[in-house]
Automatic annotation (TrEMBL):
GO molecular function, a single term: flavin adenine dinucleotide binding
Annotated Gene3D superfamilies: Acyl-CoA dehydrogenase/oxidase, N-terminal domain (1.10.540.10), Butyryl-CoA Dehydrogenase, subunit A, domain 3 (1.20.140.10)
UniProt protein name: Acyl-CoA dehydrogenase family protein
Family the UniProt entry places it in: Belongs to the acyl-CoA dehydrogenase family.
Domain Acyl-CoA dehydrogenase/oxidase C-terminal: 192-324
Amino acid sequence: MLLEFDSDQRLWQKTVRDVVAKHCPPTLIRDVVDRGADPRPLWKSYLQQGWTALTERAEAVELTIVLEELGRATDPTPFLATTTQFAPLAGGDAPEAAGAAIYEGISARRVGAGWTLEGSALVLDGDRAENLAVVTGAGVFVIAADRVRAHRISALDPVLHIARVTLEDVRVEAGDRVDSNVRDARAVALTGLAATVVGASQRVLDLVVEHVSGRQQFGVPIGSFQAVAHKAADMHVAVERARALTYWAALTISAADPRGHLAAVMAKAAASECQAMVFRHGLQLFGAMGYTWENDLQFALKRAKAADLLLGGGDEHRATIAKEYRAARI
């Protein structure tokens, strides 16, 4: 992929989009939120499709395509945490069970030939993961989730699972430690979150365009008014900018480019700016209807905002970009 998808990637995007539209429609998301529907059959369908096997570095672009479509659909499964946070840290074969990652907040104390892990952190899908990859000063450890305490907490996005995970005197041995490049793994995680924000923001834009094209004032669609058209155009530009940086980050990861971490940070920063504009303009263009529970706009808005807050917001990542550029004396 250079400036646009090749034929295979376009076919892959269409295939993923068709599968998501069939198996993860807006009605399913509302069922999960309003009636507590179980998303595990959807997760199993992803496993059967082989999507969780997209963990090789060379498949980063293809994985990002999946993540964008799932972000657009407000996916209720642990796919994001498993493929972009757990798998890059854990290494090995493609995960067949849900996983999550703890990047900070856990300390490792040497005890004999092993270590004792202690600490607490907020973890994406920490309450329904079967395995956890834990980053500590002594390395990365992979442990079974039944060795920790996890409690789901309330989050802005009602579909997203955020849990308080606590480790108390969890004993690990040398065999639990994995050889993992945390910096590279974090780049994958940031790119995955950026793709999720892009997909959710695109969904907001699609709903807005549909709304302003159909609603009329003074006998014409409100989308023909300059003030409305300018806001929609600004949203489109923001989404395209964030999408371009996200796929550039995925491309650098797939090519083992040393700029991979910086590209991922730039993608996450651009996604943050994108969702802020899309959130503001999306609600304004929908008017009071955008604030109602019955409107599906809320799910895309909340997914974009929640994904932006995970692993640092825009301010943090812009500071990282400035620091790395100063270090490189550019």
